[in-house]
Amino acid sequence: MWHGLKVWKTNSRNESRECRKMKFHPYYNNSWALVIGINTYQFGSPLSYACNDAGAVAYILTSELDFPEENLFILKDDAATKQAIMDTYLGFYERAKNPDDRIFVFFAGHGLTFQGLHGPIGYLVPVDGKREKINSLIRWDDLTRNSELIPAKHILFIMDACYSGLALQRAIPPGSQRFISDLLQRLSRQVMTAGKADETVADGGGPEGKNSIFTGYLLEGLKSAASDANGILTANELMAYIYQKVGQDNRSKQTPHFGYFEGDGDFILRTPDQGHLNAQSPKEFLVVTPTQVPESITISTAFPSKPGFAERNGYGDPTSPNFGRNNWASRLGECRRKKDDFGFSKAFSWLSLIVEPVNNQYLSLDIAKMIEKLKNNLSKSDKPYERLVIPQRVMTTIDSVIRFEEISSSPGLWSWYIRVDKDGNIELSDSLNIFDEFQGVRHFRYVTLIGVIWQFMFFAKNLLFDAGYSAGVRFLVNLVGTRDTILSEFSTVNNEGGRHWITPFGRGFLFDGANLLKLTCSDPNLQMEYQFIVGNFREPESFEIVKDIATQFGLAYNHQSSPRCFNLDTEVFPWNQYSQYRR
Questions:
Q1: Model's pTM, two decimal places?
Q2: Predicted pLDDT of residue 133
Q3: Which one, of 548, 432, 448, lies nearest residue 489 by Cα?
Q4: Average pLDDT score over residue span 465-491
Q5: For the chain, what is the total number of helices (H) and then of strands (E)?
Q6: Which domains occur in the chain, in start order?
Q7: SS3 (DSSP) at 340
Q8: pLDDT of 130 over the 90 cut
């Protein structure tokens, strides 16, 4: 079973987002590195020492710092394309899935800075990057945002390039004494850059004449010159050493900066007898934290932050009485049944699923092409979780395509719809297939809920991947109008003993007010939030999310047992039962 997923979730029982806490150990499980050096650019001026810098860093990582050679990925010149760099970096999502892993990333090449509405934005230039084509560059945010999805507890970025826009912080006061075990058991995301946008980063001039000034002193520090009296070398100590040496070198016209963009642990590079790599007998040491020198950024407040797709459509606050009630959702209808009659009205309760790209990877969907793709679905897979049925009717706006099903007996009311906009935001909203009112009892269909959620994730993944997007997404599960509703439609598949869940409105269920009251939801709406990487999303990852969603629904409805959408005593989902209800 896959266990590396980092999940964010929000529901109305706990309105603040919180990361599922991980317990880190005082040692590293494994070490990984991505080393990049570019001398010969396809569209930019060449460099002389970047490839030497990359080779020297790679050598010392494996020869002295115990990074396994098979875990070292080197990209030089023609191999260092934007696609290759991002693929390799995002590949750590799969490779460095143990929370106790560490990742070292080194880049030697050109950097650029562009002025944005809120301040400077830094970019790295891959070998195929063009200054005038911004989507061919690697925005620094592409690395930092996706680092949230990599389970490894420590990531260190060393950038021998000049650019600005680093939103860094001083996480640990200078002079603080910290235990090595404490630093190893805390998350950290640290970075050092060789210089700012308005500075010239020297290509050459290193102490031994074979590297840049910045990398020359980096190599000295890695070889132990930056270690303290006990032989300890941390990222903070290394970066403080480089900062001092580069700043004092009379050939230098650059000012390195370093600090944290997340966490307050510290990347450990060297300890006596490499005890930080030994799970059996990790040794304890006390280290003093040097002063960090983060880049000072003036952030403009003239323009407010732009809300995300979910927030713009009303799915920001699940405690709000207007949660999710927008112009599109107002078209949904729900069924109200009595013994001998039924009718339709505007929906008060429904399911809304939203996927938003969270990365600055260039993405612009062709709405005209989306019409046909949505009609035929993207996947021809025989796997049930990849076979979401698509509504047949279609309409478009200037920036989106909507496919919907209208309730035949109630013109103007929709049973459900899928909406995709040109920025890659995807929404599925469904009431009629998900929700029902029977003899005054309002209920959501549990098996159908989970089946639709599972299929939608793969539908969104396939659509975005087909459009060239492979980075991170934000996935929101919204259940609107849940107060005083119940869950119905449990799995009816028998276990080995011939037993199955007793489901509301089914045979054997005690249908009285007191029994129903125990199963009602007390929250007005439910919301859960998750993140996953499109390019690495497979069945094991999806099951971890589905299982968590199913559990959260069960808890919200006071089901103090395993999720009843799975077969009794198993974690098997009843796809055959689901397909009978929702074709």
A1: 0.57
A2: 92
A3: 448
A4: 90
A5: 13, 27
A6: 22-288 (3.40.50.1460), 309-581 (no CATH)
A7: coil
A8: yes
